[in-house]
Design goal:
Elements: H1 2-17, H2 40-44, E1 49-56, H3 60-63, E2 67-72, E3 77-79, E4 85-88, E5 94-95, E6 98-102, E7 108-115, E8 127-134, E9 138-142, E10 147-151
Parallel strand pairs: 1-9
Antiparallel strand pairs: 1-6, 2-4, 2-7, 3-6, 4-5, 7-8, 8-9, 8-10
């Protein structure tokens, strides 16, 4: 009896797994995401904590007439909505702050960046900026150690 039931189950389920032809996904509409947040505390079992970033160091080629940075979320951190945009003056003064929620202190973070004065409107950024991080809950980002990634037009 068990064999008969097993054979019937296989025969009934087999057509469900057969594919006539591989399907090609159709292009979908453009999607806007307001948050890339995942419940990392739930996924990793690690508690979340708040971390604050401070900028130091000079990089004249980056700062020019001011530098606008937008933090790009990536594990182990995501940015708090009101504190992911920072403007840094040509003299290194910081307007705004970087506040992150993380399961561990970041070792490196990425920004979308563009050179612009403080009161510039939000507009398209230039490209990717990768910066090493030192410290723990109050961490430091040394602008002189940041490296520019490709401009968005070359990014693929």
């Amino acid at each position: 009896m068990k064999k008969l039931i097993s054979i019937l189950m296989v025969l009934l389920c087999t057509p469900a797994f057969a594919a006539d032809e591989p399907s090609t996904p159709l292009p979908g509409p453009r999607v806007s995401l307001f948050s890339t947040t995942v419940d990392w505390a739930g996924v990793t079992g690690l508690p979340l904590a708040q971390y604050t970033g401070h900028f130091a160091g000079q990089n004249k080629s980056l700062l020019q007439n001011g530098l606008i940075l937008y933090y790009l979320d990536s594990f182990p951190c995501y940015g708090e909505a009101d504190s992911v945009r920072v403007w840094i003056s040509p003299f290194g003064d910081q307007v705004g702050f970087l506040r992150l929620v993380c399961v561990a202190a970041p070792k490196q973070i990425k920004f979308a960046y563009r050179n612009a004065p403080q009161d510039a409107e939000q507009a398209e950024t230039t490209g990717l900026l990768e910066c090493p991080v030192t410290g723990d809950y109050d961490f430091k980002i040394d602008l002189s150690k940041c490296t520019r990634g490709p401009d968005w037009k070359k990014f693929k």
